[in-house]
């Protein structure tokens, strides 16, 4: 799958979807994008900037949602133009698909909404690349239905994103077998390590997280020879307006990605064995 000047694929060099969870301000978005761009250029990592203009699925009515569609797309366009990078953001309503596609080369369907037919059809009709987060309540084989639904609407430019499964209350667990199952659906697979660290509702009015495990969990996903990683970072995660407990401190980005890139290169140099 081609995107600007690079290809996304399970046997291709690492693609990183990285940025911030929700757009808190224009200046913070530019700072985060600049840091990601510098590090990914240095390490020769294919880069897509990620941020949300609206978090419509927050735990509490008092939680910060974002700047909204119009202001959010203006910020995303400025990031894309300033740093010459593609951008990805999520949509929650069918009528958001078209305006988002004019700015973002990748449209993301949130995990809770991956089965919403009208939303899938609207996104597919833009002919953009569509990334589907695997819902926490679905098994990996069930994502075949999501892929077929999008393809039936005329769009097979599909990425699948693993982000863990619900395991009891307030917990997510990543089954590494899911990566291989998703790859059999003939789509590039991305690992959302940030949201896989969530403890949903763990703080009562918001989500808790386990960012101390972000490197080890990211390595587990990258070891499966997948297309790329989805990562959120923040200059001060404890002050982030959404999912701070899962975010990587921005100051650690280069050290983190250096190890991830080295592992990705090593894994993809290995010969696959057919043990079926």
Automatic annotation (TrEMBL):
Single GO molecular function: 3-deoxy-8-phosphooctulonate synthase activity
GO biological process: keto-3-deoxy-D-manno-octulosonic acid biosynthetic process
Predominant place of localization: cytoplasm
SUPFAM superfamilies: Aldolase
UniProt KW keywords: Cytoplasm, Lipopolysaccharide biosynthesis, Transferase
One Pfam family named in its UniProt record: DAHP_synth_1
Domain of life: Bacteria
Cellular component, GO annotation: cytoplasm
Subcellular location: Cytoplasm
Pathway: Bacterial outer membrane biogenesis; lipopolysaccharide biosynthesis; Carbohydrate biosynthesis; 3-deoxy-D-manno-octulosonate biosynthesis; 3-deoxy-D-manno-octulosonate from D-ribulose 5-phosphate: step 2/3
The reaction(s) this protein catalyses: D-arabinose 5-phosphate + phosphoenolpyruvate + H2O = 3-deoxy-alpha-D-manno-2-octulosonate-8-phosphate + phosphate
Gene3D superfamilies cross-referenced by the UniProt entry: Aldolase class I (3.20.20.70)
Domain DAHP synthetase I/KDSA residues, every copy: 7-268
EC number(s) per entry: 2.5.1.55
Nucleotide-binding among keywords: no
HAMAP family: KDO8P_synth
UniProt record similarity statement: Belongs to the KdsA family.
Protein name: 2-dehydro-3-deoxyphosphooctonate aldolase
Lineage of producing organism: Bacteria, Pseudomonadati, Pseudomonadota, Gammaproteobacteria, SAR86 cluster
Annotated gene: kdsA
């Amino acid at each position: 799958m081609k995107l600007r000047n690079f290809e996304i694929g399970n046997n291709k060099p690492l693609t990183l979807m990285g940025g911030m969870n929700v757009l808190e301000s224009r200046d913070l978005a530019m700072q985060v994008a600049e840091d990601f761009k510098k590090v990914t250029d240095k390490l020769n990592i294919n880069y897509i900037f990620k941020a949300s203009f609206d978090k419509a699925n927050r735990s509490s009515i008092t939680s910060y949602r974002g700047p909204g569609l119009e202001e959010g797309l203006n910020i995303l366009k400025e990031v894309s133009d300033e740093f010459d990078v593609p951008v990805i953001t999520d949509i929650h309503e069918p009528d958001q698909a078209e305006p988002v596609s004019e700015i973002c080369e990748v449209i993301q369907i949130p995990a809770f909404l991956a089965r919403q037919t009208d939303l899938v059809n609207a996104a597919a009709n833009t002919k953009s690349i569509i990334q589907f987060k695997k819902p926490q309540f679905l098994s990996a084989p069930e994502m075949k239905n999501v892929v077929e639904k999008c393809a039936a609407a005329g769009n097979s430019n599909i990425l699948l994103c693993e982000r863990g499964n619900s395991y009891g209350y307030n917990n997510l667990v990543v089954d590494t077998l899911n990566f291989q199952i998703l790859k059999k659906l003939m789509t590039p697979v991305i690992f959302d390590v940030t949201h896989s660290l969530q403890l949903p509702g763990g703080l009562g009015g918001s989500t808790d997280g386990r960012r101390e495990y972000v490197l080890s969990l990211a390595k587990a996903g990258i070891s499966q020879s997948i297309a790329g990683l989805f990562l959120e970072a923040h200059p001060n995660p404890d002050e982030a307006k959404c999912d701070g407990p899962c975010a990587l401190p921005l100051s650690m980005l280069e050290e983190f990605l250096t190890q991830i890139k080295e592992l990705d290169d090593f894994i993809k140099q290995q010969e696959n064995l057919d043990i079926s």
